[in-house]
Design a protein that fits this description.
Number of helices: 27
Strand content: under 5%
Shape: globular
Largest sheet: 2 strands, antiparallel
Structural class: mainly alpha
Strand order of the largest sheet: 1-2
Distance between the termini: 48 Å
Number of strands: 4
Oligomer: single chain
Length: 626
């Protein structure tokens, strides 16, 4: 697997004498928790039992040492931000970036002869006297229903806050958490509005998964049962297009007329499938750990949730794996339609013990960032008609330079669209007090490693894949074929189409040369070379081009093959050569920005190390005297 650039780029080799030590959680413990989870059954029915467990220290899981390993941090390289080399890069940004924006603006100008051919894809706008490109169906649906979604989320959050004030929160070990009764009711009504009578199918499929989890959890073959059920469910949903009541019984045909706002409920149900697998596997791992360690030991750990990792890796009480909590988890309104994805353990643990990360200030700032992203999207869609042009796909009307920029903006649009949709959902979850993982942690133009790109693109989905697919299949030990399995599942989960399978296999294949290059060059004899960072930028430039091609194939429009043929023709050879040089310069700036982030992390660790050293020395001396 490729290494972080912060651990690879720099002119100075690692010097242990100049390093500081920090102590992350034990990797062995993390792997065991991810693979096996925790499990227990309720051993007492009184509040005094909870009090007794709270007083006991946390116990290590079977097969782990319970000790934490420490890693050493290398000394950061000197800053290059004020060197002559980087001043040249700044000049490049000041000249090339405005020219790129102007070229895309002109390519979408109403004065171009090609404009009339795709004008019917555009809608009336409100900025700069221009029309707006709303030809992407997903974005058009979200934008046109934004006020309705906002009012629904506001109503849910207000009611939920009031209910939590009136109903005292308890760290319950029995059945449905009191905090989730309203979520169950509101979520059911919300799905009835969205999907109408189709809630019968949703509830039936959810109950089937719950039944299998309760009957099979703890057995070695249980994961095969869970995965078989859920994959067959996905294929059946797609094949029968959400089913029909008439096909079940003719007298029920009238229910087909009441299908709610989103008639194709099965498309959105793919996210519910991830939650269903999460519930089944988390419960399965809990039962397995109960068999090994005993319920009392696991319950003691369930009462001591200190970090975000604890919320995911430590099981809830056995009584919390009930249908009420499961139903609330599946239908939680802010996250139901789009995510971000959160595990069952994390969801219930936060309901029992809210995260401090959702403060009023953090939530308000996040809301402002959401508004800013929305305004930026409006500006882009009023000035660059990349979606409409790519659907029209008459690329002979444009130069290679214009085609490349429109392809780049097509991917930028996809990134910004998903960023806004996910941030909208995450914002309302934060308002409700639920912390979720941030998707799209970095801008699309600020990624050069394939591995890091996929960690940041759909971060919560990536973590779900690691926890429930990648690690159970062997993790790094089997990464040569494991990666293909993961991306095949990703393609099938998105859509049952050959094009997405091609995309998945292209991406999986691209991991191999990146891993090989990392294995060859991520060594001290290379890192100490002054030209090492230029080798990294050359590899990063190839990665960026490959990622753009892969994503255009997977998520572009039907005319993407014509686009790529023209870019990689003889006509485009000179353009590609110049682009490769510019990408290398851009990557040098990205490398330095990563190193700047690392310098902050290193300084914070050093400060923390200096703060803790006197206390550690004092406690050690005190222990010796005793």
């Amino acid at each position: 697997m490729p290494a972080e650039h912060s651990a690879a780029v720099g002119n100075s080799s690692f010097d242990p004498s100049h390093s500081i030590v920090v102590g992350p959680p034990n990797p062995e413990l993390s792997d065991t928790l991810l693979l096996s989870g925790l499990s227990a059954a309720v051993t007492s029915s009184t509040d005094s039992a909870i009090s007794t467990m709270q007083q006991r220290p946390p116990l290590p899981l079977p097969g782990t040492t319970g000790a934490s390993r420490q890693r050493k941090m290398r000394v950061p390289s000197p800053s290059l931000l004020y060197t002559t080399e980087f001043k040249l890069y700044y000049l490049l940004y000041l000249t090339v970036a405005p020219h790129m924006a102007y070229t895309m603006y002109q390519a979408s100008s109403p004065t171009r002869s090609s404009y009339a051919a795709y004008e019917n894809e555009l809608s009336e706008g409100w900025m700069l006297g221009r029309k707006v490109d709303l030809s992407d169906g997903q974005w058009d649906t979200f934008r046109s229903n934004l006020l309705k979604f906002t009012m629904a989320m506001l109503g849910f959050v207000v009611l939920n806050r009031v209910a939590r004030t009136l109903i005292p929160a308890k760290k319950s070990i029995y059945g449905v958490l009191p905090q989730l009764w309203l979520t169950c009711v509101f979520g059911t009504l919300f799905i009835m509005v969205l999907s109408g009578a189709s809630i019968v199918f949703i509830a039936g499929l959810a109950w089937g998964n719950y039944f299998l989890a309760k009957r099979c959890a703890g057995r070695r073959w249980a994961p095969a049962v869970f995965w078989t059920y859920n994959m067959l469910m996905l294929f059946a949903n797609e094949h029968y297009r959400g089913y029909s009541f008439e096909s079940i019984a003719a007298p029920l045909a009238w229910l087909d007329e009441w299908r709610g706002i989103l008639r194709r409920w099965d498309i959105m149900f793919n996210l519910s499938m991830l939650r269903m697998v999460s519930f089944a596997m988390d419960y399965h791992w809990r039962i397995q750990q109960e068999q090994k360690a005993g319920a009392e030991r696991i319950d003691a750990m369930a009462l001591q949730i200190d970090t975000a990792r604890d919320r995911v890796e430590r099981a809830c009480f056995a009584g919390n794996y009930c249908f009420g909590n499961y139903w609330a988890y599946l239908l939680y309104p802010p996250l139901y339609l789009t995510g971000p994805i959160i595990t069952f353990n994390d969801f219930v643990n936060q309901m029992r013990q809210p995260s401090p990360a959702t403060s009023l200030r953090a939530t308000a700032l996040y809301g402002l960032r959401l508004v800013a992203a929305g305004l930026l999207m409006e500006l882009v869609l009023h000035t660059v008609y990349c979606v409409a042009i790519s659907k029209w796909a008459h690329w002979d009307e444009f130069s290679v330079y214009e085609i490349s920029l429109l392809g780049y903006m097509r991917l930028t649009f996809i990134w910004l669209k998903l960023l806004i949709i996910w941030r909208f959902a995450r914002f309302w979850a934060m308002v409700d007090g639920l912390e979720t993982v941030e998707n799209m942690r970095r801008c699309m133009s600020n990624n050069y490693s394939l591995q890091q790109f996929w960690r940041d693109w759909h971060c919560s989905y990536n973590r779900w894949l690691v926890r429930y697919v990648y690690i159970p299949l062997g993790g790094r030990k089997t990464s040569s074929w494991n990666t293909f399995v993961v991306f095949t599942f990703v393609a099938l989960w998105h859509d049952l189409s050959l094009r997405l399978l091609e995309w998945a296999w292209i991406i999986a294949l691209m991991f191999l040369p990146e891993a090989l290059a990392t294995w060859i060059f991520n060594r001290p004899q290379w890192k100490s070379k002054p030209y090492f960072r230029f080798i990294c930028s050359a590899g990063g430039a190839i990665n960026i081009v490959g990622m753009m091609i892969g994503n255009l194939v997977g998520f572009g429009d039907e005319g993407v093959d014509k686009m790529l043929r023209k870019i990689f023709s003889k006509e485009g050879a000179l353009f590609l050569a110049i682009t490769f040089v510019i990408l290398n310069m851009h990557l040098q700036v990205m490398f330095e920005l990563r190193e700047h982030e690392y310098r902050k992390e290193y300084a914070a660790a050093a400060q923390n190390n200096q703060t803790n050293t006197p206390d550690q020395h004092s406690s050690t001396t005190h222990a010796k005297h005793k």
